[in-house]
Amino acid sequence: PSESKSHLPSNLGFDFFSLAESKASRVKRLTKQLNALLPES
Questions:
Q1: String of DSSP letters for 3-32
Q2: pTM, whole model, 2 decimals?
Q3: Distance CA 17, CA 13 (A)
C-alpha cells in the first residue's frame, strides 16, 4: 500500500509539469503570431 501511495504524487507532479509545459508553448506560439500581426511601434 505504501508503494502505491508514494507512486501517486510523482505521477500527478509529472502530469502537471507536462500540462504546464504544453500551456507555456501554446502561449509562446500565440504571442509570436500576435507580434507578427501587430506592427512594431
A1: HHHHHHHHHHHHHHHHHHHHHHHHHHHHHH
A2: 0.50
A3: 6
Amino acid at position 36, single letter? A
**φ and ψ at 6, to 5 degrees?**
-75, -20
Placement of cell 502561449 in the chain: 27
Spell out the domain ranges in the chain.
1-41
Residue type, 22: S
| Positive/negative CA dihedral, 30, 28, 40, 36 | negative
Length of the chain counted residue by residue: 41
Residue reference for cell 507512486: 7
pLDDT of residue 15: 81
